[in-house]
Amino acid sequence: MAADVARPAVVLLSGGMDSSVLLHHVARKLGYSPVHGLSCDYGQRHARELECARRQAAAAGVVRHHVVAMPFLADLVKEGTALVTGGPAVPDLDALDVGERRQPPTYVPNRNMILLSMAAAYAEAQGIADVFYGAQAQDEYGYWDCTPDFVERLNAALALNRHQCITIHAPFATAKKADIVRLGMALGVDFADTWTCYRGGDLACGACPTCVERRKAFRAAGFEDPLAYIED
Q1: What is the reported pTM?
Q2: Which of 111, 89, 110 is nearest to 199 (CA)?
Q3: What is the DSSP string of 148-168?
Q4: Domain assignment present for 22
Q5: CA distances from residue 132 to 13, 23, 115, 135 in whole angstroms, order as listed
Q6: What is the DSSP-derived secondary structure letter of residue 10?
Q7: Which of 19, 169, 207, 215 has a Cα at 20 to 30 A from 198?
Q8: Does 145 reside within a domain?
Q9: Residue 130 binned pLDDT confidence (cut-offs 50, 70, 90)
Q10: CATH number of the CATH domain containing 88
Q11: Which residues span the domain enclosing 112?
Q12: CA angle in degrees (0–180, nearest 5) for 189-204-227
C-alpha cells in the first residue's frame, strides 16, 4: 500500500510488542489517518498490558482509544485456557510437547473472532473500512486464528455486508518475530512500554511461551530487550 494513503483505520491494540509495532506501522508507515485503537479487558492474567496499550496509543497519536471491559469472556472460557484468571496455570514453553505447541494451553477459545467482530462493528459504525490486528506466525507454537487462511475466510464473511464492508488486515501474519522487532526499532517504538509475559507478574517470567519467543526475537534481531526478567 502506498505511503501517501490517507484514510481511517481501526487497530486492535493489546499492548504487546506485535500490536504496538503494528499500530505505529499503520499510522506512520502505511499512512492511515486518523487511527483508532481498540483494546479489550477480557480477564487476561496479563492485564497490565492494557496500560502499555494506553501509552502506545498516546505515542502513536491515535484519535480515539477505547478499552472495552468484557469480563464475561474469562468466565465463559476459563476451563479451556490458561491465559485468563481462573484458568489453569500458564505452562513453561519447555513443558509443551510438539502436539501441544500446535495449539498450546495459552490459546483463548475463539478470542480473535470475538475481538475482530467487535472491531468490525466499531469500524462499521464509524464508517471505517479497514481493521488491523497483530497476528504473527509464531516460531515456537501456533494458533489457528492468527493464520492467513483465517483472515481470508473472515473477510469472505464480512464481504456479505450489504452496506459497509470491512476488511481485516494482518500484515505480520507471515512475519518472523525478529522482523517485527527490527521494524519496531526502525519506527522508534518504545519496547519498554510493551508487555509480553502471559503470567503478568511484576517482572516477566522468561519461561512462558511468549516470553521465550520475545527473548529469542530480540537476540535474533541483534537488539537488547528492555524488559526485566525474573532470572536477570
Answers
A1: 0.94
A2: 89
A3: HHHHHHHHHHHTT-SS---EE
A4: yes
A5: 9, 8, 11, 9
A6: E
A7: 169
A8: yes
A9: very high
A10: 3.40.50.620
A11: 9-221
A12: 35
